[in-house]
Amino acid sequence: MLNDNIYSIRETREQLSRLVELAYLTGGQFLVTKFGQPRAAIVPVPKDWLIKPKSILDFEGFLGKGGETGTELVNRIRRNKREKAYVVRLRKR
């Protein structure tokens, strides 16, 4: 590892975003030191660790086969809230 890739904690704090981006884009590795002693390393994430973005279609039927849709779930929650408020008003009479 070259001396160009060694950063103190203070330098790392000031340039963390840039170092992370460089590690990702170029595969560079950076050593973080505290009082000249190695403490951590910034290394790129292996490609097989990266999560594939999901399509909106992946969430279709998220409550199981034949289950309610997201819209039906929201409507049921809202209805329950209205019904609870209605019962509270009835009890106050």
Automatic annotation (TrEMBL):
InterPro entries: YefM-like_sf (IPR036165). It comes from the Bacteria. Belongs to the phD/YefM antitoxin family. This is Antitoxin.
